[in-house]
Amino acid sequence: MVGFVAAAVAVVLALSLERDDTRSYPPPPASLPPAAQPANPGSTGPAPGFDVVRIGEKGDAVIAGHAMPKAEMVIRDGERLLGRTVADGRGEWVFVPELPMAPGPHHLGLVAINPTGATVAAANPVILVVPEAGSEPAYAVKPLAEGGARLLSGASVGEGGLSIDILDRETKGRIFIGGRAPAGGAVQVYGDNRFLGRAVADEEGTWRVRPKAVAPATRALRADLVDERGRVKARVEAPYEAEVETAAGTAPMAVTGGNVVLRIGRKLGDGDSGTTVIYKAGGQKRDPAPVLPGQVTQPAAK
């Protein structure tokens, strides 16, 4: 499925970026509503979801995902219908909106109308932020049902292939730190040189750590990409925000002149609220050579 979607996205995106920029933008939603609930909670069948969201420099979008084979997909931008498409025999679908996405925040929702007649909503919508033309890359974030969030699109990883992309905090205390690394790569995460956890990047090249606790006075997060002997191959650092005041459900706020590019407040299904902080360019690259205080140097247990 990944190969098909990647190929389809590459072709469609290449075509879409050749369009002129004379079309009008559809109006963006005024705010980010809570995540959509399943249209029929008692229905059966696989839940649909977003896998790929890509935005070109002129706002042209390519959106792809998965669902039950032959299901009709209904894609919405907030309360506005963005369009419809049909999943193929393998449950893969690709959608290209006719108009470019307007600059600003968007809340992409998805409902599948299965061949059985059942309707099932995606449990994880996508929060999309489109910048003014050429100012920044577009950022697409997918909250995860198990907590935290995944960055679907944003700044390139750069040299070393390691990044800290997301700090996700929930008011009930859970914290998730995530980023990108070469698939299968071991990543060790620190807060002010205190070891917070270890993760292995999945086949899509993303990693995530859920620390048991992070000291409120922590000022910096660090991620080390290590080899099988525990030696550091790449290192990045990002600021830690102990207090976040963005109200859940409000539009993202762009932050200029620093390492943080966006703060996104959102509501969670259990009445909790959370804030996702997205780091510009995946954090700042650091010299991997020094052995820092608190650094775990022994190989990871197998």
Give structural attributes.
six-stranded antiparallel sheet; 2 domains; mainly beta; Immunoglobulin-like; disordered N terminus; 302 residues; 1 helix; seven-stranded antiparallel sheet; 21 strands
Explain the layout of strands and helices:
Blueprint: H1 2-16, E1 49-55, E2 61-66, E3 72-77, E4 80-86, E5 92-95, E6 104-113, E7 119-121, E8 126-130, E9 139-143, E10 149-153, E11 163-170, E12 175-180, E13 186-191, E14 194-200, E15 206-209, E16 220-226, E17 232-239, E18 253-254, E19 260-267, E20 273-279, E21 284-286
Antiparallel strand pairs: 1-2, 2-5, 3-4, 3-6, 6-7, 6-8, 8-9, 9-10, 11-12, 11-20, 12-15, 13-14, 13-16, 16-17, 17-21, 18-19, 19-20
What is shown here, in short?
With 302 residues, the protein is mainly beta. It contains one helix and 21 strands.
Number of helices: 1
Q: Round the mean pLDDT to the nearest integer and report it.
A: 78
* Percent strand: 35-45%
Count of domains: 2
Tell me the Rg in angstroms: 20 Å
Question: For this structure, what is the CATH class of the largest domain?
Answer: Mainly Beta
In words, what does this structure look like?
5% of the residues lie in helices and 41% in strands. The protein is mainly beta. It folds into 2 domains: 2-131, Immunoglobulin-like, CATH 2.60.40; 149-286, Immunoglobulin-like. Strands 3, 4, 6, 7, 8, 9 and 10 form a 7-stranded antiparallel β-sheet that branches. It has a 6-stranded antiparallel β-sheet with strand order 15-12-11-20-19-18, with no helix packed on it. The longest helix has 15 residues, at 2-16. 35% of the residues are buried.
